[in-house]
Amino acid sequence: MDTDDFRKRLGEIIKKPVALLTLAAILLLIVGAITYASLKKEITLQDEDKKIVVTTFKLTVKDLLEEKGIKLRKEDVVMPSLDTALKNGMKVTIKRAVPITICVGGKAKGIYTAASNVKEVLQQNSITLGPQDKVNMSLDTPVFRYMYIDVTKVTEKIVTQELDIPYQTETVKNDNMERGQVRVVQQGEVGKKQIVMKVTYENGKEVAKNIIEEKIVKNPINQIVYVGTLGVFTTSRGETFRYREIRTMVATAYTNGVADTGKKPGDPNYGITATGTKATRGVIAVDPRVIPLGTRLYVEGYGFGIAADTGGAIKGDKIDVFFPTLEETIKWGRRYVKVYILK
Q1: Would you say 82 and 62 are in contact if contact means Cβ atoms under 8 Å apart?
Q2: Which range among 75-89, 130-144, 169-183, 256-270 shows the weakest confidence by mean pLDDT?
Q3: Per residue, what are the HEC states of 14-30?
Q4: 24 Cβ partners below 8 Å, 6+ apart?
Q5: Under CATH, which architecture does the 41-95 domain have?
Q6: Distance CA 74, CA 299 (A)
Q7: What pTM does this model have?
Q8: Which class is 156-227 in CATH?
Q9: Are the C-beta atoms of residues 30 and 55 closer than 8 Å to each other?
Q10: Residue 299: phi, psi to the nearest 5?
Q11: Which of 42, 74, 72, 78 is CA-nearest to residue 57?
């Protein structure tokens, strides 16, 4: 082998490793550029009203937020979820929870929520509404900061009660008993009635009662009481008698004379009363519409008598007492007296 051939072959041997190394370096640069380009991502971050575009090499949404120092409450909502792999051009939205108060059945508590409306708030907090429950606002009301949601728990209960029916007391006047005497002749007994009611409770407190059925189980028995009506009077002579009534009346006097009766001695009806009896002391003329004929009387200042006669001038609260002589009638005159209507 001559010197020229040797040099030529040696040059070829030296050139091959250099080319290989150069090629390897170029390949590494290309792969690095591709890897860099694939790891670098441009992400849009929407945090409520704040919107920013960031560049990151992080792999997940969670990593990105930690990288940017963005703090979250456990109630905040991130879309897509924290474990979602980041992709170039992705948009990450943060919906911040706001403080509100929920009052259920009279018990209030403060919470943070990112729910959209009242219905979602109730669902998130496992609050189930009964058919009668009431909420202080519409379920589709949007959630806002410091909102107060009041849920009134309404329950209904059917209650059966047995109640007393009071008896009535009947008072019966008894003219065989002295005034002031009282006698129970029939004891009263209370009745019973059954009432079925629908009772409504709000937050455990009774707010309404509605009777849905009522029936008598036992009728009451009225109490009957006799009340004496007879008065007792003792005269100045010590005579005691019972009377049903006292009336104040105008009393005049009459005799058998023609001036009083219009009849003379010899007349068949002379000295005969309207009831057909003989006119004697104790006969009293009355208005039968006021005092029935045959009624026993005691007239103040005159004594005992009987309503046995009538007279044309005797009308209303007026009586005419009989005296045997004209002198006695004149002495009697016309006066107001108490007339006792006797038993």
Answers
A1: yes
A2: 256-270
A3: HHHHHHHHHHHHHHHHH
A4: none
A5: Roll (3.10)
A6: 108
A7: 0.52
A8: mainly beta
A9: no
A10: -105, 125
A11: 42
